[in-house]
Write a structure and sequence with these properties.
The structure holds 2 protein chains of 2 kinds. Chain A is built from 14 helices and 8 strands. By secondary structure, chain A is of the alpha+beta class. Chain A has 3 domains: about 190 residues, no CATH class; about 70 residues; about 90 residues, no CATH class. Chain B contains 10 helices and no strands. In chain B, helix 3 packs antiparallel against helix 4, helix 6 packs antiparallel against helix 10 and helix 7 packs antiparallel against helix 9. The chains are: A alpha+beta, B mainly alpha.
Chain lengths: ~400, ~190
């Protein structure tokens, strides 16, 4: 009898059958999924600040005191040339308080290094360390509970259950049209006794975080399930990821033909400009600043024996929300613009593909969205706990 | 190996576990300490490669990342060969071949072999290189679509590989096409 009371209750007077069924399913599915959801939300919470924690761990290398004009990039090219190093890439940060990140290679030994440099004094700050080992483990727990492909499917199923729980929770939360019920639904009675406070933390916080948790959950299963990916991309004007167009044996697709033309152009540049000395990093940086007229973190990949062009990625935050949107440009060794892929010009489904991961992890708007995502996933982490306490009270 | 490994297998291989290999190699104490030193040095280089190709808010340049990763593995192998004997080196190479990610393209050895055995002229060589690079870029660019799904990765790989072969064969004679297919199929085994 008591067992029946724990997992089932009779329909209340004036309660709709729909709401009653929603309660039963919310209870059962909540109990079944609580542990996995708890782990996924907790690891998500921890992972949110991965870059910030790494930056803090390497604060001696990453952060500098801003002081006037940055040294020209030529300075660093010359300094590294003294120790027979050729620059392969430079990251110029948007923030005046961050160091340059320069990768270089010894052309003879091919030994490769990435160091931080003070952009004002030119000091080599070394390479810093990495907490990637810890965060990789957190990420793997988050994605698959360290159980490989089987774990990935388990997490996927439980996140789908969680999405259902958000909607069934909304049904249960929905207040009747009475002033007191409406007031209770939107507020938390902080001074109430423990179980009442617990109830409000579950119900009210669940309501306020619903749309955001739903967004995070959907972007998560987007990454996991091809059918979700297809549904989202098709709804944004793209095509299903699983419909592979079958080309006749003697034809190439338009997209491949376009890439072929680009690669053939590069092969011709390799031979035509093989003896051409590339323009300086300062020159290319000036060109980029002229063509992409906003302040943004810029990464320049230098030409090499296999790649005849400068490849630049610049992060555009010049929009209403300050979202980090990547633009790509390529210049040949002489500084002529050869390719421009601006985020704003891409179709919607392509834009979504590019930023689906930062949308899921909270990186999209920088620190402000990271803090927000942390709070939301913390609520997500608390929901199985407060829900369990509500059920536990019934058991006693 | 020509084909890339999809991410579900890649996740197992992130951070190579050398303990089993070291047991198989039966290293003496001097070799063991040199092995650990070399492995740590190149693990560091690999992390720096990842840092160099990752920007907050940006998209990782997977083509550049994989190209540098391949170079780093070659350097590591060369340094290992300085203190491993022939038998140990063969076991090391087998381990690395089985447990490391590969660039999704015909490797340099296969490209050189195709150029030599098919006696490709300059224009044909350019098409070969261009098609190979286009295949690599197309496959890497589609990573966000097939990420974590081996079946889908395989489908995309086969689709793009077919395009690559079509593009290359369009500039070859019938005899060259036969030889090309032989070489590529042999490399795939």
């Amino acid at each position: 009898m008591k067992f029946r009371k724990l997992f089932f209750r009779k329909r209340k007077k004036n309660e709709s059958r729909f709401k009653h069924i929603a309660f039963i399913l919310h209870l059962w599915l909540g109990l079944i999924s609580s542990l996995v959801i708890l782990i996924v939300c907790l690891t998500g919470c921890i992972y949110v600040f991965k870059n910030q924690v790494n930056d803090f761990y390497n604060r001696e290398q990453v952060f500098v005191k801003s002081g006037g004009e940055r040294l020209p990039l030529q300075y660093f090219e010359d300094q590294l040339a003294k120790s027979d190093q050729q620059i392969s890439s430079i990251m110029i940060p948007k923030s005046a308080k961050r160091s340059l990140v320069i990768s270089s290679t010894d052309p003879d030994s091919k030994i490769f290094q990435t160091h931080f440099f003070n952009p004002y004094t030119g000091k080599d700050l070394g390479s810093g360390g990495s907490l990637d080992g810890f965060f990789n483990t957190v990420e793997q727990i988050h994605k698959n509970l360290l159980l490989g492909d089987a774990g990935k499917q388990i997490v996927g199923v439980f996140v789908l259950i969680f999405i259902f729980l958000l909607f069934s929770g909304l049904v249960l939360w929905w207040p009747k049209r009475k002033k007191k019920q409406i007031r209770n639904a939107f507020g938390i009675k902080w001074k109430a006794k423990f179980y009442r406070l617990n109830h409000d933390l579950h119900s009210t916080l669940g309501f306020y975080s619903l749309i955001f948790l739903l967004f995070i959950a959907v972007t998560g299963v987007y990454i996991t399930y091809p059918w979700v990916k297809s549904a989202v991309l098709v709804s944004l004007g793209g095509s299903s990821v699983q419909e592979q167009t079958v080309q006749p044996d003697d034809e190439v697709s338009d997209s491949f033909a376009e890439l072929m033309n680009e690669m053939l152009k590069k092969e011709n540049e390799k031979s035509a400009l093989s003896n051409e000395k590339p323009i300086s990093a300062d020159s290319i940086y000036s060109l980029v600043s002229k063509d992409l007229q906003y302040n943004g973190t810029t990464v320049i990949l230098m030409p090499n024996e296999n790649e005849p062009r400068f490849r630049i990625q610049k992060i555009n935050t010049d929009n209403l929300l300050g979202a980090m949107l990547p633009d790509l440009v390529e210049y040949d060794k002489k500084g002529n613009l050869q390719k421009e892929e601006l985020f704003k010009n891409k179709p919607l489904h392509q834009q979504f593909k590019e930023i689906s991961k930062p949308l899921h992890t909270g990186e999209i708007l920088g620190l402000k969205s990271l803090i927000f995502y942390f709070l939301i996933t913390l609520i997500g982490f608390s929901l199985p706990i407060t829900g369990f306490i509500m059920w536990w009270k019934k058991m006693k | 190996m020509i084909f890339a490994v999809s991410c579900s297998k890649e996740e197992k291989k992130r951070g190579l576990d050398y303990d089993q290999l070291k047991n198989e190699l039966a290293l003496n104490s001097d070799q063991s300490s040199k092995f650990d030193e070399t492995a740590a040095k190149f693990k560091n280089m690999m992390e720096e490669n990842k840092a160099a190709n990752t920007t907050e808010g940006g998209k990782m340049n997977r083509t550049a990342f994989f190209a540098k990763m391949e170079e780093i593995y070659k350097l590591q192998s060369a340094e290992m060969s300085a203190f491993l004997d022939e038998g140990q080196q063969a076991k090391y190479n087998e381990f690395m071949d089985k447990n490391t990610r590969k660039r999704p393209r015909y490797n340099d050895e296969l490209l050189a072999k195709i150029k030599t055995e098919l006696s490709l002229d300059q224009e044909q060589s350019k098409v070969l290189e261009a098609a190979n690079n286009a295949f690599e870029k197309e496959f890497q660019d589609a990573h966000d679509i097939y990420h974590g799904n081996e079946e889908l990765a395989k489908e995309y790989r086969e689709k793009f590989d077919k395009q690559r072969r079509t593009a290359i064969e369009s500039v070859l004679s019938d005899e060259q096409v036969t030889k090309f297919r032989e070489l590529v199929d042999e490399a795939n085994q």
